Amino acid sequence: MDVFTRQPDDRWLLCAYADLDAVIELEMPDCRLSVREIYDRLVFGAAEAVALSPPAPSMD
Q: Which residues contact 31 (CB under 8 A, 6 or more apart)?
């Protein structure tokens, strides 16, 4: 999973996560994403078997 974060000088920082046990910490208060949860219902293999998780609740 690739996560891009805009820097104060308007450049983008790329962080790549390849470990299912990784946790992505976002700068928003109390916001963390578990890579395992993002891929929880994704079936790797046959394209017709891919099932995506429902969208996360909005942080608005």
A: 25, 59
